[in-house]
Each structure stands twice: as C-alpha cells, then as structure tokens.
Specification:
The protein has helices spanning 35-47, 118-124, 137-150, 171-182; strands at 9-14, 52-57, 97-101, 129-135, 154-163, 185-187. It is of the alpha/beta class. Strand 4 (129-135), helix 3 (137-150) and strand 5 (154-163) form a beta-alpha-beta unit.
Length: 193
C-alpha cells in the first residue's frame, strides 16, 4: 500500500540522543543504524513542507528514573549535556519543533505527549496523522504511539526506523505487535508515494 504524506501529516522523531546511541550511557545496540533511514523521512517531510517534531529526554541530574535515586536506568540525557544532544548525523530541518520531556526530578515521561505541548502544537497545525520513529521501540516510541492513538491521531510507526532496548529478548517485537493491535499502522520508506 502506498501512503502519500500531505497537509495534515507530521513526522515525530523520538529521542535520537547520544546517550541512547552507541557510546552513550544507555546505549541501544546499533541504535545509530536507523539514522540514515530517519534522514530519508526527514528529507521527505522537509521537501513536502510538512512539520517535523523531535522529542528529547531532558532530565535533571538527580532524576527519579536514575539508579542512584532508586530508578531503573543509569543516568542519561541530563539537560544540556553532550549525552542529551541529538546525534550529529541526524539531519533535523532548521524548523524542527523540539519537545523536551521529563524535565523535572519527579516527572518520568516516556511519551512525547506527557507533560508537553506536543498535542497543542499538533492541533494548532491541524495535524491529523502522525508518523513516529526513533528509540526506544518498547519505551518512548510505544508510549508516544499509545497516546497518539488515544488522542485520535491516525498513527503510523516507521517500521524501518525504530530500535528496541530489548532488556528481555523480544520486548521490541512485542511492543510493535501491541501498537498494531491498538490501531497503529506500520510503514516502510518505500511505501511513501
Ligand atoms: C527512554 C529509557 C529511559 C526512551 C527514556 O527514550 O525510550 N528509555 N528514558
Ligand atoms: Zn529517560
């Protein structure tokens, strides 16, 4: 099936930050392998003058999700650090809307919608369909897709431009199946008209 992105569509790139990519403090194996794919989607949306959003984890140094505070994760994506920066190979257009999340000690937000202006911005731009890729499939991508569906956006998951942490083998695949079960549609770059 061919999908033709058009007015009313937006691309949302989730958390493509150094700490989630090889060399980072919470590195996803081969997470950087999806950058060329994401760059193709970014170029497509920019060429069609469609809005692009990029979410980022933007944590204080003592964030509740960090192991020293009793959370599940090593410290990562501390606001303003190199680890929190988007990967330098990610070709974000100058007009990208950057959405920072989980910015206070007590707020842990996997979803790009959680505690942010993302929904309000999408609505102000009359967006009805969202195309979501990035990392990690079973955490921030999954939560963002769930919220997008709950908020009534037609939701496409970039099947060729997501990567999982896979703490348990198969976590990413299970999350993808669940997203489709909830009503998301997988899409691959070749399917863009
Ligand atoms: C994420 C773990 C901790 C993510 C964020 O972006 O999926 N994962 N914080
Ligand atoms: Zn985090």
């Amino acid at each position: 099936m061919k999908i033709a992105p058009a007015a009313g569509d937006a691309l949302i790139v989730i958390d493509m930050q150094n700490d989630f990519l090889p060399g980072g403090s919470l590195a996803i194996a081969a997470g950087d392998a999806i950058i060329p794919q994401l760059n193709r989607y970014l170029a497509y949306f920019a060429a069609h003058r469609l809005p692009v959003f990029a979410t980022r984890d933007w944590h204080p140094p003592d964030h509740c999700s960090f192991q020293p505070q009793g959370g599940p994760w090593p410290p990562h994506c501390i606001a303003g650090s190199d680890g929190a920066a988007f990967h330098s190979a990610l070709a974000l257009p100058a007009a990208t809307h950057v959405i920072s999340k989980a910015t206070t000690r007590e707020s842990d937000a996997y979803s790009g919608f959680s505690g942010t202006q993302l929904d309000a911005l999408l609505r102000s731009l009359h967006i009805r369909r969202v195309f979501i890729g990035g990392v990690a499939t079973e955490y921030c991508v999954f939560s963002t897709v769930q919220d997008a569906l709950r908020l009534q956006y037609a939701t496409f998951v970039l099947a060729d431009a997501v990567r999982a942490i896979d703490r348990q083998p198969g976590d990413g695949q299970r999350a993808l199946r669940e997203m489709m079960h909830l009503g998301a549609q997988p899409i691959r770059y070749q399917e863009l008209a």
